[in-house]
Each structure stands twice: as structure tokens, then as C-alpha cells.
Specification:
By secondary structure, the chain is an alpha/beta fold. The protein folds into 4 domains: about 220 residues, Carbamate kinase (3-Layer(aba) Sandwich), CATH 3.40.1160; about 150 residues, VC0802-like, CATH 3.30.2130; about 240 residues, Alanine racemase (TIM Barrel); about 110 residues, Lyase, Ornithine Decarboxylase, Chain A, domain 1 (Beta Barrel), CATH 2.40.37.10. The protein is about 30% helix and about 25% strand. An 8-stranded mixed β-sheet has the order 3-6-2-1-9-12-13-11, sandwiched between helices. Strand 31 and strand 32 form a beta hairpin. The longest helix is centred in the first third of the chain and has 25 residues. The termini are far apart. It comes from Luteimonas padinae.
Length: about 850
């Protein structure tokens, strides 16, 4: 056996216009290339023209009247950069002369395509000449090579002359000789041009838009490179456009098809044409950030182990829909062919298609088409024989991209719900199972991406917990993310294990946390009165702490009222609110008898039980016509919810009240629970202020509760400052009212944990399950709302590498699940203590004795010393 010589291990680096326009950027190029060469790779650097130069050359090639002046401006620009780089400007002298000759020669008048290509090619030739001279002057072993000697344009059968010169494809069937000749170039590192290739007539050819990415991809493919690195000024591809969705995630790994789809439908970081050569040659692509090379970037390869799920959503505006009423011709042989022939004749390339018995609707993507009213009128005339045309524009195409879209449809209910208010003109699911597109009116698209992105994450359709695919959020990268602080129980393991030893299931509360949250709210100046919604957690110690901290208590039943008066000695009735829903009438009578503040939300009660209400003061709860919340079941505004009086019934309520001599002194709205937009309360407050003005007798405006907490590791803490600022602003507009709030969750959720003991660990068909001695009976939230609670194995905090377990309870229902695919120590075993975090709100109160299992126990872990 004779040994075959090791082929060179090439790596291709591509830098765009902004990366080659300044000296320090060239230093970065030199450093990155040098590092790779030091690791034993041969390096090929592909560069674009300086930023803006291709646009200037395009104008010249298209016959700009001031071509000569533009050329001189370009010359000045390159000479200035040469000086900045410490080079003699003569290095670009010859090339600038070529450009000057091009604009003065006779062809300039006719502007044939071959001449245009020569003009356009000069930008890259200039930038690469400067760069190679500079890098060599820095002592780096860099050689310059002319990309046209290596990339050969090929004519494709359906290309017109323009495309054959100015948007070419290149040969990819090079032989070993090509490779060895390329490798024989003497320098360790080579610098070449993107965007240009050799035409078969020996002149220049242009690769078209995104050409530099495509050049790098061709070179990578031809050289069988280890990787093609596309260096840009963004961290990589994201799950959505970060400008619209600041929480978009960096996509750290995609397969070629997904990447291609994402590039085609939105992201501009990589040109879609660049994917194919690398895909066919099996060369990975990496998108990296020149300013932040330490970030993981996006790696694109053909790995078979890609995770199914939605990876990205994108939006394209300016889409034109052409809807054709087909008058019964549909399904006749050749009908579609005739229609599409018309589109072809008018130079229109069709993107999406939807069809029914009598209608065919297609979309025209503005980036591929020149759609003018003129063209459409002519198309319509042409098609008049076979169908009636309707143009719907402007539209937005919202696309979900990811592998395995078909098997995800059941996860997309939130996405469908997002579209409930918009008119969806067309839905298209590609048969490659990678893309699902909705076309809606452009006017409806604003804000939608954010909503869909949230919905996809909440439903699990976008599997952001897959660390191999989803990287940090854009906001996190930009340093704008506020981190969830360490949780109290992380330092209290021994105490919690000792408590668990006294019996589980058991809730444990830390009163210091309750006090800390209470003080955070007390610090909010705009709020005059604070009540705790005791339904979240009526534990006596918690109520006492909150009353000590100056909170009143909000109750919703006679039971809650009796409870607060029995456990908080000396409680002032005026500090208690009674805000029931559809309660039996004697509970109102009971509340009046106790002297607490009663809130009513309908006219019917006044009419039916006048004697209960006559002469009383009441608060009125209104429904502002919409709601919000962490789950549909906790949204308490809008027609679908049973709470609140619609605003257009306020007059009727006031009439009925006047007839009974009832004074309406407070105005209340609570539109949902777990609302994470701080603006929500500002808006509620503003609207209530407006209504209060019309009523006249109001002294207090109550904007409800609903403040969220960060349940998930990557949830941000609620932005209390933004919340407070919003309230202060509205308060200033309505200085005459006292402002009240009545949160529950925010005050107590994080103070409580649920301690459970693992009962059995079972593997079934590849799924590991750990059972606990409490499930939906002890904590209903996961079953009822798909709510997330972190789950930890307290007994084994060093239990080795985590593996995924479904955490289930002992109840005979399949919904008895506390968490799916949770990372727990591989050695998790019966007897281990499991901690379910953030269970202090709506935990114990909603526990039940289903299957006749005992209610959980409760302990207060820390007696506050203050
Ligand atoms: N005010 C009224 C009139 C309410 O109905 C509620 C909660 C609150 C205040 C307090 O809302 P909070 O600040 O806690 O969001 N069981 C569900 C939550 C249901 C909330 C019911 N009403 C859960 O576990 O998420």
C-alpha cells in the first residue's frame, strides 16, 4: 500500500462590505485567518467590495449620466482607504485606470452586458487588491488570486442573456487537477473576490445578488472545505427578526434545507443561493459575528439528527395575491397550465398557490417580481377568457419554518388562535414538510410575529429548550436581559429535606419572600391602596405578614371573608374587598353586614334583589372588552368571560343604582392573571379613569391583579419599573382618584415550593417516568393550564449528568403530569425528594382529594424576624 498525500484542509472565510471598509476590520480578517492557518488549515478569504461600491458601480453600469464623476468618487474612496492602511495608493492605480477606461470606451454608450459585468467586477478586484497588499505588509503569508481564474460560469437552459452574464451559476464539476493547481498557489493564505466569475467567452461574469456568499460557497464546495465561514455584523440567524421580536433566539444549528427556507422567506444574513453548493458537497456553513467571534453563531450542516419543530418565523410584506374565480373550468385538462402560461408571459413568478372548486389564488413575491398596476391590468385582460381576477394587496406572508411541520399541527392551536382576528387569505403548507405560510392583509401583520413567537414557545411547537439548536435571545446577546435572580430554596436544601422527612406531599413557604415582594409593591408611588387576593394563598401566616405590611385583603366568597376575620385579629372591614362572581345573594348580605367593600358586576342582581343593595355604597366591576393572561382559562375580560359589566351597560347600571339610592364609589377591572405586558395596567387605568369621570361619584379606581412571575429559567422578572412608570403617567392625568391594586400571584408564588417523594421510576418504550406521591391532586396548575413549574431532585444535587424524565403523579388520569421531559439526575430513584418550584400561588388552595388522596401538608419555613 502506498500512502496517499494528505489533501489540504481548506477553510473558506467570507467578509462583506462593512468588514472590508476600515483598517481595524482588516486587522480582524488577518487575525481570524491567521488563527486558522496556525491550526494547520489552508485559508481562502473571499471579500466583497467596500460598502456601497457595488451600488455605485450598478448605477454606472446602468448608464448614470455622471458616470465619470462617480468613478472619481470611487477612486478617492479607495485611495483614502489605501492611505488609512498605510499603503502607497499606487497599489490600486492600475485598477482605477481600468475603471476609468471602461467608462470612457465606446461600449459605455451601448452598455452591452459584457461591459456591465466588467464594470461591476471592479469593486471586488479593488477591495481584494487593497486587502492583500495590507495583510502581506503585516507580515502575513497572504497571496492574491483572481476568482475568475477558478470559477467558471455555466449557462443554464432556461436563463436569458441577462442572467447568463449578470446572475450566473458556476461549474461545480472540477477535477483533482483543478484542486491541486489551486493548492499549488504559494501562500498559506489566499485572498480572492466574491461576486465574480469567468464567462465562457473569457470576460467577466457576475453571480448576482448575494454573490459573495455564493462565491464562498462555490469555493468551499470545490475545495471540499472543512467549513465555509460567513463573517457578518450580526450574531447569526434568529428564530424571528429581532427588530420585531426582541426575544427571538439565535439558531445555533440548522440543516441545509431549513437554512435555505429561512433565508428564502426572510433572514438576510445569508443569501439562499449560497446553501445549495455547500449542501451538495456536504460542506458545513457557519455564520459568525465579526465583532463578537465568541458567540456560537449559526452552524448549517446536513446532520441527520436535526430536532423537529418550528425553528423560525418570518414575515414578507408587499405580497400581492391574485385570486381567480374560475367559472367551473377548474380540473379541466390544461386549465392551470394556461393560467400559468399567462403569468409567464407577463414575467410574473408565482410563489404560493391555493385552490378550491371555483377559485385559484396565487401570491406574487415582490422580491422576485415587478408587479405594477399596469402588469396586473394586462394580466387580467389576458385571463379574462378563463376567469375573473381579483387583486388583494398589500398582503403579508407569515411563514413558519422547521422540519416536521406536519407532525406539529396539533401544537399550533395558539397560532391559529392568533389569526382569529385577521382575515387569512391563503394558507400553504409545502410538501417538503418545512414550511407553513399564512397570507393576511399587511395592515393586520404588525405585532403578530411577537404573538406567534410567544405562542409557538408556549405550546412547545418551537422547542427552545433544545440547547443544541436554540441559543441565547437577541436581547440577552445585546445585554438587555434582566436575569431571574437565584431562588431562595437553592440555599436551603438541608432544611427542606428535613421538612420533607416529616411527610410529603408538603407545601413549604418562606415568609421573607412574601415580605420582600410586598415591599417592592409598596415602593410604587402611584398606587394608593394595596390588597392581597387571598384566593392565591390564604395561609394564615401569609395573611398576617401582608396585613402587617399594610395590605388589605381581597376575598371572593363568604368562606374567604370568614377566614380573614378569624385569622387576622382586629382586621379593619374597610380594608377588605369582596369581589365575588355569581355568588349566592346571601353572601352579599353577609358582606354588607361585615362592613366590607362590595363589588358588583351586573345590573340583574340590583334588579332582582333591590333590598340587599338599597342605600349601600358599591364598587362596579367592568369588562373592558378584552382580556389577557398566561392561559385562556385565566382570561377574565371579553365576551367569552363571565366577569364584569360591559362598558355600554354602565349607564343602565347607574340608572338601576340611582333608583335604589346606591352610590357607586369604586370602579374595578381585573382582566386576567399572569399578564406579562406592563402596559396592560396603564391602559386599564386610563380607560377606567375615563369611565370614572362620566360616573362622577367614584373615589377609587381598582386595576385588579394579574402581575406575573418568572416561572421558567429564561423568563424575565416582571418589569416593575415599567409598570410603575406607566401607572404614574396615567395617575397624573387622573389625580382625583385613589389607585388600588389587588395582586395575588406576584406576592406569594415564589415563596412556596411543593415537596414530593419519588414513588417509582419506570421506563416504558424509551420514555423514563418518575412518579411522585402528589400530582394533579396536590398541584393542579400543570394539568389545568399546561403551566410550567421547575422541578428539581433535592436528594441528588450532584446526581450526574441529567436525563429527561416525565414527572407524573399518583392519580388515575393521563393528565396527571407535573412536567414532561424534565432534566433530572440519571440516578433519580424512589425515595428521592422532588421540589416543585414557585408553587406558593394557586397551589395548596386548588389541591383536592381526588382518588381519596389526602391533601398536602403545609409548613412555614422561615419565621420572619422583622
Ligand atoms: N382580583 C380578582 C378579581 C381576581 O379574580 C384575581 C384572580 C386576582 C385579583 C388576583 O390575580 P393574580 O394577581 O393572582 O393574577 N388559578 C390560576 C389563577 C386564577 C386567578 C383568578 N383570579 C392560576 O393558577 O394561574
Amino acid at each position: 500500500m502506498h500512502s496517499i498525500p494528505e489533501p489540504d484542509r481548506w477553510i473558506v472565510l467570507k467578509f462583506g462590505g462593512t468588514s472590508v471598509s476600515q483598517r481595524e476590520r482588516w486587522d480582524t480578517i488577518g487575525r481570524l485567518a491567521g488563527e486558522r492557518a496556525a491550526e494547520g488549515r489552508r485559508v481562502l478569504v473571499v471579500v466583497s467590495a467596500l460598502a456601497g461600491v457595488t451600488n455605485a458601480l450598478t448605477a454606472i453600469s446602468e448608464g448614470a449620466t455622471d458616470a465619470a464623476a462617480r468613478v472619481e468618487a470611487l477612486a478617492d474612496r479607495h485611495v483614502a482607504l489605501a492611505r488609512e492602511l498605510g499603503l502607497d495608493p499606487a497599489v490600486v492605480g492600475e485598477r482605477l485606470d481600468v475603471l476609468r477606461t471602461l467608462v470612457s470606451e465606446p461600449r459605455a454608450a451601448r452598455r452591452p452586458l459584457d461591459w456591465q459585468a466588467e464594470v461591476l467586477a471592479q469593486g471586488e478586484l479593488l477591495s481584494s487588491t487593497l486587502g492583500a497588499a495590507y495583510l502581506s505588509a503585516q507580515g502575513l503569508d497572504f497571496g492574491w488570486c483572481d476568482a475568475r481564474d477558478w470559477l467558471q460560469a455555466v449557462a443554464l437552459p432556461n436563463q436569458n442573456d441577462w442572467a447568463r452574464r449578470l446572475s450566473v451559476a458556476c461549474r461545480r464539476d472540477v477535477d483533482a487537477r483543478w484542486r491541486s493547481r489551486f493548492a499549488a498557489q504559494p501562500a498559506a493564505m489566499l485572498l480572492t473576490q466574491g461576486f465574480i466569475a469567468r464567462h465562457e467567452d473569457g470576460g467577466s461574469a457576475i453571480l448576482g445578488r448575494g454573490g459573495s456568499d455564493t462565491s464562498a460557497a462555490y469555493f468551499g464546495a470545490l475545495l471540499g472545505a472543512e467549513c465555509v465561514e460567513i463573517w457578518t455584523d450580526v450574531p447569526g440567524m434568529f428564530s424571528a427578526n429581532p427588530r420585531e421580536v426582541p426575544d427571538a433566539r439565535l439558531l445555533t444549528r440548522l440543516d441545509y434545507a431549513e437554512a435555505q427556507e429561512i433565508c428564502t422567506t426572510g433572514a438576510r444574513v445569508l443569501h439562499p443561493r449560497a446553501v445549495k453548493p455547500c449542501r451538495e458537497a456536504g460542506v458545513p456553513i457557519a455564520i459568525l459575528d465579526t465583532a463578537r467571534p465568541e458567540l456560537p453563531g449559526t452552524r448549517i450542516d446536513g446532520g441527520p439528527d436535526t430536532v423537529p419543530g418550528v425553528k423560525a418565523i418570518s414575515r414578507r410584506d408587499g405580497v400581492v395575491l391574485v385570486s381567480m374565480e374560475t367559472m367551473g373550468m377548474w380540473q379541466q385538462v390544461g386549465f392551470l397550465a394556461d393560467i400559468f402560461e399567462c403569468f409567464r408571459r407577463h414575467g410574473l413568478s408565482v410563489d404560493l398557490i391555493g385552490s378550491s372548486e371555483t377559485n385559484v389564488t396565487v401570491s406574487l413575491d415582490p422580491s422576485e417580481n415587478l408587479v405594477s398596476t399596469d402588469v396586473l391590468a394586462r394580466l387580467s385582460e389576458d385571463l379574462a377568457r378563463s376567469c375573473r381576477l381579483k387583486v388583494i394587496a398589500p398582503c403579508s406572508a407569515i411563514t413558519l419554518v422547521g422540519r416536521g411541520m406536519r407532525s406539529l399541527l396539533h401544537h399550533l392551536s395558539d397560532v391559529w388562535a392568533t389569526f382569529d382576528r385577521e382575515r387569512v387569505h391563503l394558507i400553504s403548507q409545502s410538501s417538503n414538510d418545512l414550511n407553513l405560510t399564512f397570507v393576511i392583509d399587511e395592515a393586520d401583520a404588525d405585532g403578530l410575529l411577537q404573538e406567534i413567537h410567544d405562542g409557538l414557545i408556549a405550546s412547545g411547537a418551537m422547542p427552545v429548550r433544545e440547547a443544541g439548536v436554540f441559543g441565547p435571545r437577541w436581547r440577552e446577546i445585546e445585554g438587555q436581559l434582566r436575569r431571574r435572580p437565584e431562588r431562595w430554596w437553592q440555599g436551603r436544601r438541608d432544611a427542606l429535606l428535613a421538612l420533607a422527612a416529616t411527610g410529603t406531599p408538603r407545601y413549604a413557604y418562606n415568609l421573607d419572600v412574601v415580605r420582600a415582594r410586598a415591599r417592592q409593591l409598596k415602593a410604587v408611588q402611584a398606587v394608593d391602596r394595596r390588597f392581597f387576593a387571598i384566593k392565591a394563598n390564604p395561609h394564615p401566616d401569609i395573611l398576617r405578614v401582608l396585613v402587617e405590611e399594610g395590605f388589605g385583603l381581597e376575598c371572593v366568597s363568604a368562606g374567604e371573608l370568614a377566614h380573614v376575620f378569624s385569622v387576622v385579629p382586629g382586621l379593619e372591614p374597610s380594608c377588605v374587598l369582596f369581589t365575588p362572581s355569581f355568588a349566592p345573594v346571601d353572601e352579599y348580605a353577609d358582606a354588607f353586614a361585615r362592613g366590607v367593600n362590595v363589588t358588583l358586576d351586573n345590573v340583574e342582581a340590583l334588579e332582582r334583589w333591590p333590598e340587599v343593595f338599597r342605600g349601600r355604597a358599591l364598587w362596579l366591576r367592568v369588562d373592558l372588552g378584552r382580556g389577557d393572561g398566561h392561559h385562556a382559562k385565566v382570561v377574565t375580560g371579553g365576551l367569552a368571560s363571565k366577569f364584569g359589566l360591559l362598558v355600554d351597560r354602565v349607564e343602565a347600571f347607574l340608572d338601576a343604582a340611582r333608583a335604589l339610592d346606591v352610590r357607586v364609589t369604586g370602579l374595578h377591572a381585573h382582566l386576567g392573571s399572569g399578564v406579562d405586558t406592563p402596559d396592560h395596567w396603564r391602559e386599564v387605568c386610563d380607560e377606567l379613569g375615563g369611565i370614572a369621570g362620566r360616573i362622577g361619584s367614584i373615589d377609587t379606581i381598582d386595576i385588579g391583579g394579574g402581575l406575573p412571575i418568572p416561572y421558567r429559567e429564561d423568563d424575565e422578572p416582571f418589569d416593575l419599573e415599567a409598570w410603575a412608570a406607566g401607572l404614574a403617567e396615567v395617575k397624573a392625568a387622573y389625580p382625583g382618584y385613589r389607585l388600588a391594586i389587588e395582586p395575588g400571584r406576584f406576592l406569594v408564588a415564589e415563596s412556596g415550593v411543593l415537596l414530593l417523594t419519588a414513588t417509582q421510576v419506570v421506563e416504558k418504550g424509551g420514555i423514563r417516568r418518575v412518579g411522585a406521591d402528589g400530582g394533579m391532586n396536590a398541584l393542579m396548575r400543570p394539568t389545568l393550564y399546561d403551566a410550567w413549574h421547575d422541578i428539581h431532585n433535592l436528594s441528588r444535587d450532584d446526581g450526574g449528568a441529567p436525563v429527561a424524565f416525565d414527572v407524573v403523579g399518583p392519580i388515575c388520569e393521563s393528565g396527571d403530569v407535573l412536567g414532561l421531559q424534565r432534566p433530572l439526575p440519571a440516578g433519580t430513584a424512589p425515595g428521592d425528594v422532588l421540589l416543585v418550584a414557585d408553587a406558593g400561588a394557586y397551589g395548596m388552595v386548588m389541591a383536592n382529594t381526588y382518588n381519596l388522596r389526602a391533601l398536602p401538608a403545609e409548613s412555614v419555613l422561615v419565621e420572619s424576624k422583622e
